[in-house]
Every structure is written in C-alpha cells, then in structure tokens.
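Sanity check

After download, print the first record. It should look like this:
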Amino acid sequence: MSALLTLISCNHAVKDTGPAPVSSECYSRLEADTLTIGNGLIERKFVWNGGNLMTYSITDKVSGKTHFSGRTEPDFVMTSVAGPGKNGKVSASRVLETPVSPEHYKVCVSFETGSLQVRREYRIYEDSPAIACDTWLKGRLKGSFASAVENNADRKNIEFSEDMASRPVSAVIDRVNFKGNHWHAKAVEFWDVTDWNNNLVAERDIISYRKNSYRGNILFMRDGTDGSGLYFLKEAPCSSVQLEYGNADFIADFGSFSVTSPGISTSDIRPDEWTGIYSCVLGVFDGGELEALTALRKYQKNVRRHIAGRDEMIMMNTWGDRSQDSKVNEQFCLAELEKAARLGITHFQIDDGWQVGKSPNSAVAKGSFKNIWDNPDYWTPDPVKYPHGLTPIVEKGRELGIEIGLWFNPSIQNDFEDWRKDADALIKLYNEYGIRIFKIDGLNIPNKKAETNLRRFFDAVQKATGYQAVFNLDVTAGRRGGYHYFNEYGNIFLENRYTDWGNYYPYHTLRNLWLLSRYVPAEKLQIEFLNCWRNADKYPSGDPFAPGCYSFGYLFAIAMMGQPLAWMEAENLPEDAYGIAPLIAEYREVMNEIHEGVILPVGDEPSGKSWTGFQSMTDGWSGYILVFREADRHGSAFVETLLPEGAKTVFEPVAGDGKKFRATAGEDGRIRFTLPQENSFALYRYTVEVLQSR
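Expected structure tokens:
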C-alpha cells in the first residue's frame, strides 16, 4: 500500500491520490494546516506546524464529546526550540497482522528542529479508542534535560500574576492543553522488584491546580463539568527504575497535562542512528471507572496478540521448593513430568541448572554470570546431568502433552554486548529441541545502550522462531521492564515466594494480582501457587493465613485469572494433592475464553478476611466471575460486580463450591453469593438474561 499522504515542503502539503485507508475505521488526512488521525472511536486533530504537531482537538466518537485545546503548543519538546519544524513529512500505511501484533494503521510524521531529527509514529488499532505514539531521535543535542520536578517550597508566594511563572520542562513526550479549571486526575504508580516489594500499586487522586508533578505509568484525566475523560499510558518501566528519570512522569497545570522523562540523556542521541524514547498512548472514555479501565484494556490487548496454543500455560517450575540446581537432571525431570501430567500441567520449565555453566545461585558450585562467553559451552545441556541432551525430556513431555521450557540469564556485561551470542544460544535450542519458552532472569538495564541491545536479543529470537518464542520476563529484582514495557515479548514472572522462608501467604498473592489486574492484563501475569503441605513449622503456630490453612485447590484458584505457575517439585506433593486434577481439567476447558475477556477485580480488596474476586467480561452479556470467600464468618455476602444495575443474570458453576442460581444486580452491581465454608471459591459462567430498568 502506498503512502496516503505526502508532504512536499515544510509548509504546504498535497494529498496522495493512492488507495483508500486500510479500512473505514482507521484513517488520516492532511488538509491545509490540519492533520487528522482517527478510527471509529477516536479522532485527534493537529495543527501541522511544519511537522512539529500541536494538538487542536480530541474527539470521543462514542460520546460525541470533543475536547478543544485552550492553547496550541508543540506536543513534543526535546529542546528549547518551540517553533515550526523544518522539512516536515507525513506518510501513512497499513501494518499487516503478525503472530504478535494485530493489523493496525501507522502514520509517520518526521521533521527537524535545530540539529535534531524527530520521527513520530502514531499507531491506531481498529477496536481501540486510543492513539499510541512511538518516537525516535537522531542528530546532536547538547546539555541535559531539565528536571521535571520543582519543589513548591522553593517558589515565591503568589501575590502577582508574574509570580505564577514556573520553570519550563524541556522534555515533553506528549501533552494536551484543555480549557476549564475543573479537571480531576488520578495518577497510578507501580513497583516491581518484587523480592523487596509487596505493595505494587498506588493511586493518587488530584484536582489539577497550578503546575505540579506526579509519578506513574497511567494518568486518568476527567472533566469535572461533564465527566468525559482521557488517559495517558506511558509505556516505560516502573517510575523508580526508569532510565535518566526526572522524578516525575506527568505534569498537571489546571487543564494542561504533559508526559515527561523520556528515558534518555542527550548523550544517547547519535547522528548516525535512530534512538527510541519511551512511548505514550492517549485514549478517551466516557462514564465511570469501568469505562476508563475498559478503554485502557482495549489498547493493552493489542500490544501482543494472545494466542491460545502459544501463550496459554499452566507451568510447573521446581525452583519454588528451594533445591535450586541440586536435583535437576534427566532422571529427576522424567519423574517430575509423570507427576505433572497427573495434575494436568501443560508446561514444565527447567530452571537454573540445566546448563553446563554454573550461575551464582548454584547450590553445587560457586558460579558466575561474569564473562559467560569465555565458556562457549555455557548454555549447552550439562552432559553429566543430561547425558542424552534434552531429547528424552522433550520427547517424554510431548508424549504426556507437556511442553518443555528453560531458564536463561542473558549476558549483562558491557550493556549486553553479547546479545547476538545469547540469541544464537536460544535459537539453537529451538532448532534442536523445539524449545521456545524461556524464563528471562538476571536482567539489569543501566542505560539506553543496554536496553537497545536487549531489544535486539528479543527481536532476533522472535524472528528466528517465527514469533513462537515466549519470554517469561522476571520482574523480581534489578532494573527491568516492569508491567508496561517489553509487553510484546511474552508474559511476566511476577514474584518469588517460598514456604521455606515463611514468606508465601496466599492472600498476599491474591491481593497483588487483584490490585495489578485493574491496570495490567491479568492474563499476562504468571501467578504462583505452592505446596501447602511443606514447611508448616516455618510459620507461627496458629497463624490463620499460613498456607496450610487453605486447600490446594484454593491456592490454584488464586492463579486462574493469570497464568498459573506451580512453583514446586511434584515429588514433594502428597497423594492428596492430585485431587485437584479435576479442577485443573475444568479450568483448562475455559481458561482461554476467560483470558480473552476483559478481566478486572470485583469485591473487596483481599485481606485474608474479605469477599473478593475477578470478573472476565467476554462480551456485553456474558463472561466469568471468580469469587473467593476468605476467612469471613458469613456464609453469604453481597459482592460488588461489574454487572449493570437491574441485570437479571444466571450463574452456572464451572469449578469450585458454587451452585447454579439467578439474581438481579443491585446498586453497584451487587450480587449475593453463597459459599459453604471459609477459604472457599467458585468460578461461574454468567449470562445476562434481561436488563431491567429501575
């Protein structure tokens, strides 16, 4: 498909007479000084400004609401130059579907400002009320970006209008300037490094007033006069680990909102190659929190297509029982596979210890990750542990219907300069054994060069495997991608928790998933469940929340909305554990349908004593609800769901302790659920039969 539009000078443009846009849903056009980008749900208009675009308006096509700019200024600022761009060009194209990305529409705008070349690529998906923007820079830039944060205590008191002036922010990824003084916002900040953090989400509600800075990956903005809203999603690591961080992600000033801290320094920008900065997504919604979260999720589900045969997994990884690499060998793995099959496990991952090289976490040798490639055999199967290579393991797994995965630690020295060797090691494992699922551990991303090389590593493996590779991206330690970065490469290994250390509490795991699932697709999170019979003596006597207080099936149910991870050695399970095989079988029948829906938390925040759960909305009239009765003494309770008030709904039990019933949703979607005992659960398939007006 040829470009739809071609700019022939910095101030004048002529429309191409080529083919129509990819579909009636996605389009762009440049007319006079106005560039318009949109689909059937959203439209954003810009003043051309020589390619240095300035937002003119943003329209929510569902509600019909248009937000007009109160003033026009460049959406993107990386220097003190704020005038028109030079040599501006625009083109548009259809991007065909790949195994990772759905078909979408791309509008590329490029221009020059001073000695800097800028390329802004706007991505828009047919079913999403959002427009994403990826930005690359090339050229030379001196100095440094001004800090986004200015301490209000260091400002003068306001007695005159000139006292309101504040230091400009020299790095703006995107911004909007709306009219009105009644803008409300909510900034959502995230934490990974989960070996040290167990509180992973924080929200800050504000009324925008003068210039102030906020941290987070998501900023919801709502007009207090009519309730219409927009959101910014900053596609970056968690705030606390971003590169070259200016201590803020968003700046709010009455109706003006901007995204800052681009994740580079001026020295990262080179004259001979394009350097990417953190991306930004702008979306619209109208209504309450459900509409806002649904709009966000519609975009997030387009970042990586969820394909059942590639991305669904009930994985077993034996590292959770703390034997480390002392047990893993051919005989152990073959025996574990037999037991895993009895449970219904779909994937078996051999963690650290399968390879010739010894890591620092080895229990049998003092190893190292330093200069890995001094040993060219580091990432080959240990011939002592696996005298026949991995072939017997892979073949046994195939016979039992279990796919084999491996652990891998990229070579971090010198900013991943050996990324090509690392990629070739995984490609060799794929070609020789068909292994395509790799847990990626030990990452530390100190600068842009390291991040770029890491992307090269991921991309090379993806391409060589026909995009069948799945990376389980560990976020337990170090400076890594968090929840909103590298999402196109696989899922997220969320946390290490161990009964050996007495730090595995089931309601903690449930709470972390519950809180994250509001803003992160639950189906992208690997959620652990452990052997609740082990290490009872490591917990205080009478501890009501110790793992032994829960059934094994309940622990598995906690993980069902995510990707369940059996974090254990099957050989340590008692015979009673295999009683959950029917539950896992029931779950396997519906797990992909659950994960295709929009999954959001319902009920109260898990505390160990709450009624809580999740709802997967597969369409407007049906879906799944997973309800947990924690250690609450009441046998029934009203749970706030996402069903509309007056929805007469039938609930069919799929798994757990629930029974079929009908109910009409009350205010806030309240449904009375009944469960027979404390620490029990029920998974229902629901169907709305009638929506009654009240």
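If your output differs, re-run the checksum step. Summary of this record's structure: The chain has two domains: 5-300, 308-596.
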